[in-house]
């Protein structure tokens, strides 16, 4: 689909928001690409991110799925809006066994209040990428609401 | 519901598995309670766990929802089984604005292959608890599969 | 939870809306109970409602889950509002093998714009009820929107 | 994706199963296309299928989403297997306002026990098709289980 952003600097607004999320720094997540209605986030493997078998924890996979969707949707919202995840559903298709987690999300519908996204999370191992998880997310646009902590 | 565990040391098995998840250590998660078909996990607030407004990141909330469900289900499985999350769906009901995140999960159905759980995640602020998120999870029991990294 | 309806005749409004749904008549569904934040719908078995094994079709089960949630939420909305289902997720726990399908839904959170419900669908066979399905639903309240077909 | 069916007559097996579902006849659903890992089902508009505004009821939309996914997955299963829906999640994107409902489903992953599908449901009005709903479904393959009612 071909989406049109509502203001010129949508990309910088997404990057600023991402950079304010300290949890992204903790897990080493990188915002790799932002286009109107699209977002890609990557997380390199680290032992601190693992579950009991030494693979990426499902919590990391769902974090990336949620965040990629959130920023894919945010890229299409008003300059003065904030975004919240209403809900998401995630299917885990293969173990997160590899050196890089890659989350890509596309907006399916950008409504006046709600935005729906679909995301795919891939795991790269020895140069090959495999579908690791798939999710579907509902976002809500909060008009005239700052994306920063107002009391900060 | 009243569930019966399949072996005596189910609680120790859950604790050992939880302790092997390095991601739980990274985010400061504590396994607070395990009963047959029930699990509770808590995460104290830390700035490294936040989203752009300074609240608990949705990724932390979904991590706790997923893990509480996983171990609620695991408590009812065979001693020689491992557990995987098939999928889950999470509704975010209130911002994670508080000093402690509390995830509680109950098994709804413990089938031969699949186990279904419902979880509630509460946020405690100034001593008061508020429902922050609610999820529904499908788990699969992998018979005769080690819960450890076999190559380690 | 203890919810307060926003106007006296909420029950009649729910009944009128239910009665305008011709699909409820086709499948023989009955609105059995409406309270603030709660709704119960029943469907007696009929061969025309079956899947390949002769049990209630999953489509009937999801219809009842969706409608019970929709009207549980609708019972708490403004007199001048209409309701739409944003999304729902349904786990099928046991085959719909029985003589009566019973769907019960409770509001989990009634927000200004969105309302979240949880539903349980039971199957009654030889007088015994068994949990057949469980769902979680997001509804949106459309303010100042008629619940009738305006062009009718 | 390019899936290979496990036996020659997979299409006839899907058709036979569909034809045993009396609920499909009640709502006038037609099995339009079956390929390995793909299924399309259509339902022409009828007043008996409507919700309170006179549009297709969400129950019909979810029925089509569920059934298209079930048969997309069934097309890849063993000849002696039966299929059950474990769970699905459906986002309703636009009102079902039109003359034909078109459900298309594709298998995302066909595992040994579980199969995951994504479905899109379109509504056709005055010759134009619009995305009406999107879902994600988990199926389970029951090996050596008849797809018919064994007591019949």
Describe this entry's structure for a reader:
Four copies of one chain form a homotetramer. Chain A has one domain: Roll (Thiol Ester Dehydrase, Chain A), CATH 3.10.129.10. In chain A, 22% of the residues lie in helices and 41% in strands. The first copy, chain A, contains three helices and six strands; from the N terminus they run ααββαββββ. Chain A has a six-stranded antiparallel sheet with strand order 1-2-4-5-6-3, with helices on one face. The N and C termini of chain A lie far apart (38 Å). The mean pLDDT of chain A is 95. Chains in contact: A-B, A-C, A-D, B-C, B-D, C-D. Strand 3 of chain C pairs antiparallel with strand 3 of chain D, so a sheet runs across the interface.
CATH fold-level label of chain A? Thiol Ester Dehydrase, Chain A
Question: What fraction, in percent, of the residue positions of chain A are helical?
Answer: 10-25%
Q: Can you tell me the number of structural domains of chain A?
A: 1
- Give the largest interface: A-B, 41 and 41 residues
The whole-angstrom Rg of chain A is 15 Å
Which series of helices and strands of chain A comes N to C?
HHEEHEEEE
Task: Name the descriptors.
homotetramer; 152 residues; alpha+beta; Thiol Ester Dehydrase, Chain A; 3 helices
Helices, strands, pairings?
The structure is a homotetramer of 152-residue chains.
Chain A: H1 10-20, H2 22-26, E1 30-35, E2 38-44, H3 58-74, E3 82-92, E4 100-110, E5 114-125, E6 128-142
Antiparallel strand pairs in A: 1-2, 2-4, 3-6, 4-5, 5-6
């Amino acid at each position: 689909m071909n989406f049109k952003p509502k203001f010129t600097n949508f990309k910088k607004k997404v990057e600023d928001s991402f950079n304010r999320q300290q949890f992204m720094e903790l897990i080493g997540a990188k915002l790799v690409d932002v286009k109107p209605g699209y977002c890609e986030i990557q997380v390199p493997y680290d032992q601190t991110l693992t579950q009991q078998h030494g693979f990426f924890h499902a919590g990391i996979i769902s974090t990336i799925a949620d965040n990629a969707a959130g920023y894919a949707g945010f890229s299409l919202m008003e300059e003065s809006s904030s975004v919240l995840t209403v809900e998401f559903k995630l299917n885990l298709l293969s173990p997160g066994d590899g050196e890089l987690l890659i989350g890509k999300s596309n907006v399916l519908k950008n409504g006046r209040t709600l935005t729906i996204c679909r995301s795919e999370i891939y795991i790269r191992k020895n140069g090959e990428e495999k579908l690791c998880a798939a999710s579907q997310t509902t976002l809500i646009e909060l008009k005239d609401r700052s994306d920063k902590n107002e009391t900060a």
